[in-house]
Amino acid sequence: MDAAYSVSVFSRWGDAVEQVWLKSRGRDGFGTFFDATPAAVERHPILALDPVSATAQRGVPGPWHGRLPHFRIEFSPSAGEEIQSEYFVARPDAVDAIRALLAVGDELRDVLLVSEIRAVAADSLWLSPQYEQDTIGFHFTWRQDQPAVERALVAVESALAPFSPRPHWGKLFLTPGTYARMADFAALRSRLDPRDAFRNPWLHRAGG
Q: Which tens digit of pLDDT belongs to each residue from 36-92?
């Protein structure tokens, strides 16, 4: 994860990693990376899809907002029709979490389009998955089949349970995460929203 300014590892939890995307701030090329070699053509993170929507690759320079995203702003991102999930664990737990997910890979692959491993720096936001900890994120792009995805998430969440995963709030998850400042958030919410105007059944389930 420290090989470049931004590193994304794409996999479907099989025997080998499918792609690694390295994004740098001004460095020309990366040569080899472990036993991988630079791609000869541009690729989509989902190998079966046309890379026309993907961000420019192969060392072509550009502004940060045109390179840090994986997809060009004028296109629909990723597959376009999909379900996404993402879970974050503390960075020291990354290797064990990867091994746990590899062990359940066969239970995910039929509904999985691609998975991405990425690093995210710590922050100070109360309900952030990165609150006061550097994390490794495990992102999943699923086929648009919610019952099958929810079955797969049972396996994912069970595999990651020993590492106290925190889910991405804007993506599909089954089990809420544990947040040290949840009580502070609840008190602030009660003070600022005494009528519960911004509460709903999903928020009650996800955030208490």
A: 888 889 998 888 888 888 888 888 888 988 889 898 888 777 767 899 999 999 999
Query: Are 143 and 83 a contacting pair, CB within 8 Å?
Result: yes
Cβ–Cβ < 8 Å for 168, 89: no
The CA angle 69-72-78, to the nearest 5 degrees, is: 75
Residue type, 165: P
pLDDT tens-digit map of 150-206 = 999 999 999 999 999 999 999 999 998 888 899 999 899 999 999 989 888 888 887
Residue 139 contacts residue 86 (beta carbons within 8 Å): yes
Q: Are 169 and 175 within 8 A, CB to CB?
A: no
Sign of CA dihedral 161, 165, 166, 171: negative
Q: How is residue 164 written in tokens?
A: 């106290």
Alpha helices (H) in 18-133, listed in sequence order:
94-103
* Under 8 Å between Cβ of 105 and 14: yes
